[in-house]
Automatic annotation (TrEMBL):
It is an enzyme of class 1 (oxidoreductase). Its EC number is 1.-.-.-. The keyword Oxidoreductase applies. It comes from Flavobacterium bizetiae. Keywords: Flavoprotein, FMN, NADP, Oxidoreductase. This is Oxygen-insensitive NAD(P)H nitroreductase. It holds the Pfam family Nitroreductase. Belongs to the nitroreductase family. One of its GO terms (molecular function) is oxidoreductase activity. The gene is nfsB.
Amino acid sequence: MNLIENLKWRYATKAYNNIKVTEEKVDQILEAINLSASSCGLQSYRIFVVSNPEIQKKLGADSYNGQISSCSHLLVFAALTDMSPTYIDDYMTMTEKQRGLDAGALSGFRNGLHSYFSTINAEQKAHWAAKQAYIALGTALIAAAELKVDATPIEGFNAANIDAVLGLKEKGLHSTVILALGYRDSEKDYMAATKKVRLPIDEMITKVY
Ligand SMILES: Cc1cc2nc3c(=O)[nH]c(=O)nc-3n(C[C@H](O)[C@H](O)[C@H](O)COP(=O)(O)O)c2cc1C
């Protein structure tokens, strides 16, 4: 399967050259993200795409990950800080419209969501939202590999700094994880020729048939 070959090809790139990823490929990765599964389908995160050396430099301040400033495009996965009743209502209304349903057709689902989110605290809601963003991160990694675009998932960044530079707090969002996209600089990147390490498949997987 080509997918497996592409997943073997990908690795968390440490050094990027200065070749830009085409907008067409970036858009395909972004569309893959938008097609990700998410709990209850609520897509509780937004993506910010940055391709501007000055802004990338600011986003990478205080981070040991030079990829933030040297990559072609940086994707910031920003989770909703609050799963508010308004957000849920708007999402249900959008779902009814896109599926051609009568207004209120999803009121049972809507009420169930209101009820669930009223039982968990603010920290739990933010955590729930962030978990969905990580699923999108996984989708983006696979999409990038399929397009032979290099990528680095990054947790080593100053979230308060990124939130401030992109004005995320004011938008009810907070950065959870980021993804650098670009093309590997095989000469500068010691990881480019380093063997991928994974568990033996039978240690990872238990089949119960
Ligand atoms: C959520 C997450 C956060 C990560 N944070 C960083 C990071 O801050 N810097 C970095 O160079 N790599 C980071 N990585 C890359 C991992 O170290 C890498 O995926 C792992 O060692 C497996 O290697 P491979 O992806 O090259 O196959 C992160 C990976 C994930 C999934």
